Structure of S-formylglutathione hydrolase:
Amino acid sequence: MGKDSKDTANSSLEQVSDIHCFGGRQLRYRHRATSLPCTMNFSLFLPPQAERAPVPIVYWLSGLTCTDENFVTKAGAQRVAAELGIALLAPDTSPRGEQVPDDPAAAYDLGLGAGFYVNATQAPWAEHYRMYDYVVDELPSLVASSFAEIDASRAAIMGHSMGGHGALMIALRNPSRYASASAFAPICAPSQCPWGIKAFTHYLGDDRSRWAQYDTCALIAGTEADIPMRVDQGEADQFLEEQLMPEKLVAALPPGYPLSFHRHAGYDHSYFFIASFIEQHLRFHDLYLKANP
Ligand SMILES: N[C@@H](CCC(=O)N[C@@H](CS)C(=O)NCC(=O)O)C(=O)O
Protein backbone atom coordinates (compact mmCIF):
# COMPACT_ATOMS: atom_id res chain seq x y z
CA MET A 1 0.00 0.00 0.00
CA GLY A 2 1.46 3.36 -1.00
CA LYS A 3 1.75 6.19 1.49
CA ASP A 4 -1.16 8.17 0.10
CA SER A 5 -2.86 5.66 -2.13
CA LYS A 6 -5.22 3.66 0.10
CA ASP A 7 -7.65 1.80 -2.13
CA THR A 8 -10.82 3.03 -0.52
CA ALA A 9 -14.48 3.76 -0.99
CA ASN A 10 -13.89 7.10 0.76
CA SER A 11 -11.96 9.11 -1.81
CA SER A 12 -10.98 11.79 0.73
CA LEU A 13 -9.11 9.32 2.96
CA GLU A 14 -5.43 10.23 2.89
CA GLN A 15 -2.69 8.36 4.71
CA VAL A 16 -0.46 10.70 6.71
CA SER A 17 1.97 8.18 8.20
CA ASP A 18 2.72 4.47 8.32
CA ILE A 19 5.16 3.28 11.01
CA HIS A 20 6.10 -0.31 11.86
CA CYS A 21 5.36 -1.18 15.49
CA PHE A 22 5.44 -4.60 17.26
CA GLY A 23 5.12 -6.38 13.92
CA GLY A 24 2.05 -4.32 13.03
CA ARG A 25 1.63 -0.79 11.72
CA GLN A 26 0.83 2.48 13.42
CA LEU A 27 -1.05 4.51 10.83
CA ARG A 28 -2.46 8.01 10.72
CA TYR A 29 -5.15 9.26 8.34
CA ARG A 30 -6.76 12.54 7.37
CA HIS A 31 -10.22 12.75 5.81
CA ARG A 32 -12.98 15.18 4.99
CA ALA A 33 -15.66 14.21 7.52
CA THR A 34 -19.33 14.29 6.60
CA SER A 35 -21.03 14.28 10.03
CA LEU A 36 -19.03 17.37 10.97
CA PRO A 37 -17.95 19.68 8.17
CA CYS A 38 -14.18 19.77 8.53
CA THR A 39 -11.04 17.75 7.95
CA MET A 40 -10.36 15.23 10.73
CA ASN A 41 -7.33 13.13 11.67
CA PHE A 42 -7.48 9.70 13.23
CA SER A 43 -4.84 7.16 14.25
CA LEU A 44 -5.13 3.45 13.57
CA PHE A 45 -2.99 0.56 14.78
CA LEU A 46 -3.19 -2.62 12.71
CA PRO A 47 -1.77 -5.71 14.42
CA PRO A 48 0.26 -8.25 12.42
CA GLN A 49 -2.72 -10.66 12.29
CA ALA A 50 -4.56 -8.14 10.06
CA GLU A 51 -2.34 -9.22 7.15
CA ARG A 52 -3.97 -12.65 7.20
CA ALA A 53 -7.60 -12.16 8.24
CA PRO A 54 -9.89 -9.32 9.39
CA VAL A 55 -9.32 -8.41 13.05
CA PRO A 56 -11.70 -6.89 15.64
CA ILE A 57 -11.40 -3.21 16.54
CA VAL A 58 -11.34 -1.23 19.78
CA TYR A 59 -12.11 2.49 19.60
CA TRP A 60 -10.22 4.75 22.03
CA LEU A 61 -11.70 8.14 23.02
CA SER A 62 -9.26 10.60 24.60
CA GLY A 63 -9.75 13.29 27.21
CA LEU A 64 -9.60 17.07 27.36
CA THR A 65 -6.75 18.77 25.44
CA CYS A 66 -5.90 15.59 23.50
CA THR A 67 -5.68 14.88 19.80
CA ASP A 68 -5.67 11.41 18.23
CA GLU A 69 -1.94 11.20 19.01
CA ASN A 70 -1.76 11.27 22.85
CA PHE A 71 -2.97 7.68 23.16
CA VAL A 72 -0.72 6.47 20.37
CA THR A 73 2.45 7.94 21.86
CA LYS A 74 1.78 7.59 25.60
CA ALA A 75 -0.46 4.59 26.41
CA GLY A 76 1.84 1.83 25.14
CA ALA A 77 -1.14 -0.17 23.88
CA GLN A 78 0.42 -1.50 20.69
CA ARG A 79 2.41 -4.39 22.21
CA VAL A 80 -0.63 -6.14 23.70
CA ALA A 81 -2.87 -5.24 20.74
CA ALA A 82 -0.26 -6.88 18.49
CA GLU A 83 -0.26 -9.99 20.67
CA LEU A 84 -4.07 -10.24 20.79
CA GLY A 85 -4.73 -9.26 17.17
CA ILE A 86 -6.81 -6.17 17.86
CA ALA A 87 -6.94 -2.97 15.78
CA LEU A 88 -7.04 0.31 17.73
CA LEU A 89 -8.65 3.45 16.35
CA ALA A 90 -8.21 6.81 18.13
CA PRO A 91 -10.17 9.78 16.76
CA ASP A 92 -9.54 13.41 17.62
CA THR A 93 -11.48 14.94 20.54
CA SER A 94 -13.27 17.73 18.65
CA PRO A 95 -13.75 19.16 15.19
CA ARG A 96 -10.71 21.12 14.01
CA GLY A 97 -9.82 23.94 11.65
CA GLU A 98 -9.84 27.71 11.41
CA GLN A 99 -13.57 27.80 10.62
CA VAL A 100 -14.44 25.77 13.76
CA PRO A 101 -15.59 27.89 16.72
CA ASP A 102 -13.53 27.74 19.89
CA ASP A 103 -14.11 29.06 23.39
CA PRO A 104 -13.48 32.84 23.20
CA ALA A 105 -11.59 32.53 26.49
CA ALA A 106 -9.55 29.64 24.99
CA ALA A 107 -10.22 27.50 28.07
CA TYR A 108 -9.01 23.91 27.76
CA ASP A 109 -12.42 22.45 28.75
CA LEU A 110 -14.61 23.96 26.02
CA GLY A 111 -14.36 24.08 22.24
CA LEU A 112 -11.28 22.70 20.50
CA GLY A 113 -10.04 19.55 22.23
CA ALA A 114 -13.22 19.34 24.29
CA GLY A 115 -16.03 18.00 22.08
CA PHE A 116 -17.48 15.79 24.86
CA TYR A 117 -18.76 13.28 22.25
CA VAL A 118 -22.17 14.99 21.95
CA ASN A 119 -24.12 16.47 19.04
CA ALA A 120 -24.34 20.17 19.95
CA THR A 121 -27.64 21.92 19.40
CA GLN A 122 -26.66 25.48 20.37
CA ALA A 123 -24.99 28.32 18.45
CA PRO A 124 -22.15 28.69 17.64
CA TRP A 125 -21.33 25.00 18.20
CA ALA A 126 -24.15 23.11 16.47
CA GLU A 127 -22.72 23.02 12.95
CA HIS A 128 -19.35 21.46 13.78
CA TYR A 129 -19.54 19.88 17.24
CA ARG A 130 -21.14 16.58 16.23
CA MET A 131 -18.67 14.14 17.77
CA TYR A 132 -21.42 11.68 18.78
CA ASP A 133 -22.43 11.07 15.17
CA TYR A 134 -18.80 11.06 14.07
CA VAL A 135 -17.79 8.32 16.55
CA VAL A 136 -20.99 6.24 16.52
CA ASP A 137 -21.81 6.31 12.80
CA GLU A 138 -19.21 7.88 10.53
CA LEU A 139 -16.03 6.21 11.75
CA PRO A 140 -17.48 2.66 11.92
CA SER A 141 -18.90 3.11 8.39
CA LEU A 142 -15.54 4.36 7.18
CA VAL A 143 -13.79 1.38 8.78
CA ALA A 144 -16.26 -1.03 7.17
CA SER A 145 -15.93 0.51 3.71
CA SER A 146 -12.22 1.32 3.64
CA PHE A 147 -10.32 -1.23 5.74
CA ALA A 148 -10.65 -4.85 4.62
CA GLU A 149 -8.10 -5.67 7.35
CA ILE A 150 -10.76 -4.98 10.02
CA ASP A 151 -13.96 -6.83 10.87
CA ALA A 152 -16.02 -3.74 11.74
CA SER A 153 -18.82 -5.89 13.19
CA ARG A 154 -16.59 -6.95 16.12
CA ALA A 155 -16.02 -3.73 18.06
CA ALA A 156 -15.46 -2.49 21.60
CA ILE A 157 -14.99 1.02 22.95
CA MET A 158 -12.86 2.56 25.70
CA GLY A 159 -11.56 5.95 26.75
CA HIS A 160 -10.10 8.29 29.36
CA SER A 161 -11.76 11.04 31.43
CA MET A 162 -13.93 12.97 28.91
CA GLY A 163 -13.34 10.00 26.60
CA GLY A 164 -14.28 7.58 29.39
CA HIS A 165 -17.58 9.42 29.64
CA GLY A 166 -17.85 9.13 25.84
CA ALA A 167 -17.09 5.40 25.77
CA LEU A 168 -19.51 4.38 28.54
CA MET A 169 -22.28 6.70 27.30
CA ILE A 170 -21.96 5.57 23.69
CA ALA A 171 -21.91 1.89 24.67
CA LEU A 172 -25.01 2.29 26.84
CA ARG A 173 -26.86 3.97 23.98
CA ASN A 174 -25.68 1.48 21.35
CA PRO A 175 -25.30 -1.86 23.15
CA SER A 176 -25.69 -3.95 19.99
CA ARG A 177 -22.69 -2.26 18.37
CA TYR A 178 -20.05 -2.97 21.02
CA ALA A 179 -19.07 -6.23 22.70
CA SER A 180 -17.75 -4.38 25.76
CA ALA A 181 -16.81 -0.93 27.07
CA SER A 182 -14.17 0.35 29.47
CA ALA A 183 -12.85 3.58 30.91
CA PHE A 184 -9.95 5.08 32.79
CA ALA A 185 -10.98 7.80 35.25
CA PRO A 186 -14.23 8.57 33.40
CA ILE A 187 -16.36 11.66 34.00
CA CYS A 188 -19.21 9.52 35.34
CA ALA A 189 -21.90 12.16 35.89
CA PRO A 190 -21.23 15.07 33.50
CA SER A 191 -24.55 16.72 34.40
CA GLN A 192 -23.29 17.11 37.98
CA CYS A 193 -19.63 18.18 37.67
CA PRO A 194 -18.09 21.52 36.62
CA TRP A 195 -16.50 20.23 33.37
CA GLY A 196 -19.75 18.62 32.23
CA ILE A 197 -22.07 21.41 33.35
CA LYS A 198 -19.98 23.96 31.46
CA ALA A 199 -19.78 21.88 28.27
CA PHE A 200 -23.42 20.72 28.27
CA THR A 201 -24.71 24.27 28.95
CA HIS A 202 -22.80 25.56 25.93
CA TYR A 203 -23.38 22.62 23.58
CA LEU A 204 -26.90 21.52 24.61
CA GLY A 205 -28.43 24.60 26.28
CA ASP A 206 -29.88 25.28 29.71
CA ASP A 207 -32.65 22.67 29.56
CA ARG A 208 -31.13 19.88 31.67
CA SER A 209 -33.67 17.34 30.47
CA ARG A 210 -31.64 17.27 27.23
CA TRP A 211 -28.45 16.37 29.09
CA ALA A 212 -29.53 12.95 30.37
CA GLN A 213 -29.10 11.30 26.94
CA TYR A 214 -25.35 11.98 27.27
CA ASP A 215 -24.91 11.21 30.99
CA THR A 216 -23.57 7.76 31.91
CA CYS A 217 -25.12 7.76 35.40
CA ALA A 218 -28.54 8.79 34.08
CA LEU A 219 -28.34 6.23 31.26
CA ILE A 220 -27.14 3.30 33.33
CA ALA A 221 -29.78 3.83 36.02
CA GLY A 222 -32.52 3.15 33.49
CA THR A 223 -30.79 0.70 31.19
CA GLU A 224 -31.93 -2.74 30.17
CA ALA A 225 -28.61 -3.29 28.42
CA ASP A 226 -26.00 -5.50 30.05
CA ILE A 227 -22.91 -4.61 28.06
CA PRO A 228 -19.87 -5.68 30.13
CA MET A 229 -17.91 -2.72 31.51
CA ARG A 230 -14.60 -2.19 33.25
CA VAL A 231 -13.61 1.06 35.00
CA ASP A 232 -10.22 1.85 36.57
CA GLN A 233 -9.72 4.86 38.83
CA GLY A 234 -6.55 6.20 40.47
CA GLU A 235 -7.05 7.28 44.07
CA ALA A 236 -4.49 10.11 43.73
CA ASP A 237 -6.30 11.52 40.67
CA GLN A 238 -6.42 15.30 41.06
CA PHE A 239 -9.88 15.40 39.43
CA LEU A 240 -11.44 12.51 41.39
CA GLU A 241 -13.81 14.28 43.79
CA GLU A 242 -14.72 17.40 41.86
CA GLN A 243 -15.06 16.07 38.31
CA LEU A 244 -15.11 12.28 38.03
CA MET A 245 -17.44 11.02 40.79
CA PRO A 246 -17.19 7.24 40.26
CA GLU A 247 -19.22 6.67 43.45
CA LYS A 248 -22.24 8.05 41.57
CA LEU A 249 -21.74 5.45 38.85
CA VAL A 250 -21.52 2.62 41.36
CA ALA A 251 -24.64 3.92 43.14
CA ALA A 252 -26.59 4.18 39.86
CA LEU A 253 -25.88 0.60 38.71
CA PRO A 254 -28.96 -1.61 38.33
CA PRO A 255 -28.71 -4.78 40.48
CA GLY A 256 -26.37 -7.31 38.92
CA TYR A 257 -24.99 -4.97 36.25
CA PRO A 258 -21.70 -6.43 34.88
CA LEU A 259 -19.35 -3.59 35.84
CA SER A 260 -15.89 -4.47 37.07
CA PHE A 261 -14.58 -1.47 39.05
CA HIS A 262 -10.95 -1.16 40.15
CA ARG A 263 -9.43 1.50 42.42
CA HIS A 264 -5.66 1.97 42.47
CA ALA A 265 -3.87 3.64 45.39
CA GLY A 266 -1.37 6.32 44.39
CA TYR A 267 -2.19 6.61 40.68
CA ASP A 268 -3.06 10.04 39.23
CA HIS A 269 -5.00 11.16 36.12
CA SER A 270 -2.14 10.94 33.66
CA TYR A 271 -1.17 8.59 30.86
CA PHE A 272 1.26 6.92 33.32
CA PHE A 273 -1.89 5.51 34.95
CA ILE A 274 -3.31 4.47 31.59
CA ALA A 275 -0.04 2.85 30.52
CA SER A 276 -0.01 0.86 33.78
CA PHE A 277 -3.39 -0.79 33.18
CA ILE A 278 -3.97 -0.68 29.41
CA GLU A 279 -2.99 -4.36 29.16
CA GLN A 280 -5.83 -5.37 31.53
CA HIS A 281 -8.30 -3.32 29.48
CA LEU A 282 -7.27 -4.87 26.18
CA ARG A 283 -7.42 -8.39 27.65
CA PHE A 284 -10.90 -7.56 29.03
CA HIS A 285 -12.12 -6.52 25.58
CA ASP A 286 -10.42 -9.48 23.92
CA LEU A 287 -12.49 -11.84 26.08
CA TYR A 288 -15.76 -10.42 24.74
CA LEU A 289 -14.60 -9.81 21.18
CA LYS A 290 -13.53 -13.47 20.94
CA ALA A 291 -16.79 -14.62 22.52
CA ASN A 292 -18.71 -12.84 19.71
CA PRO A 293 -17.01 -14.11 16.54
N1 LIG B 1 -5.82 21.50 32.53
C1 LIG B 1 -5.24 20.24 32.64
C2 LIG B 1 -6.26 19.16 32.36
C3 LIG B 1 -6.15 18.44 31.09
C4 LIG B 1 -5.93 16.96 31.28
O1 LIG B 1 -5.54 16.45 32.34
N2 LIG B 1 -6.18 16.25 30.20
C5 LIG B 1 -6.06 14.82 30.24
C6 LIG B 1 -7.40 14.23 29.88
S1 LIG B 1 -8.69 14.89 30.90
C7 LIG B 1 -5.02 14.38 29.22
O2 LIG B 1 -5.05 13.25 28.79
N3 LIG B 1 -4.10 15.26 28.84
C8 LIG B 1 -3.15 15.03 27.79
C9 LIG B 1 -1.98 14.17 28.14
O3 LIG B 1 -1.74 13.90 29.33
O4 LIG B 1 -1.28 13.74 27.20
C10 LIG B 1 -4.03 20.26 31.76
O5 LIG B 1 -4.05 20.92 30.69
O6 LIG B 1 -3.04 19.66 32.15
